[in-house]
Amino acid sequence: MNSKLIRFMNVNNLNPKSAVFQERVRQNLANAFISTTILSAIPGIIMAVPVGLTFGGFCAIYGAKIPKKLAENPKIDEDSGISEHSGNSETPSEDEKDNNEFFDFQKISPKLKILENSNNLGPQILEYLEKSQKFGILITLRDVATLLESPTTSENTVRIQYKKRKIKIVKIENSGILEMFENSRNSDGSPILILLEKGNSEDFKIQNLAENRQFVMEIKEIFEKNGEEKIVEKSDSEILIIRKGGVVWANSGF
Length: 254
Known about the structure:
Keywords: Membrane, Transmembrane, Transmembrane helix. An eight-stranded antiparallel β-sheet has the order 1-2-8-7-6-3-5-4. Helix content is about 45%, strand content about 15%. It is of the alpha+beta class. The protein folds into two domains: about 60 residues; about 160 residues, no CATH class.
């Protein structure tokens, strides 16, 4: 029996066609596996670029999404020296609470509020300016003498050409807020703007506003659209717009 088995093995080893056939089968199977793997991966490789660009575009437009719990309760390193109550918080500060209670306003949008031009509004605005260390700059198409008793000078006034009229930009004393609000009720229809700036009014150069092209364009557009809210909302400045129907307060900070 052993001799038959040895003879059978020797016969197979001597058959070159069988060995070549087996080798070809192995090569074809290997090639088929590699080809199938590559073909399966091609769609993913092709789609990687557009999917990545699309995802990047959404992130750029809408921003990275932060889990709600993480956004509400960010983890603070104990050694960072930062309090959990510091930074931006949804809880309003004491000043914001005071101002919310101080002014009776209707919220139009996150940037705009409207207040009634009552007899109390002038004193309230004056108190707000003194408390927040701000001062006012009058911007109007009207004759300044009809709004303020104090005379204008070249040091506190600049004029900008607007169509056939002049836009007057006047740095005013905070005490002038009272008479201006009182006189503004006799309006000729054009809005009266008060730009609120923080700091010392004596150090502020009114000429800088006239040289600020973006600011001048914003002011002209506000007058052209008669103080429309959608136009005012484009501005990042804190502005009071006195017009018929109320006072629009842009970017009040509370």
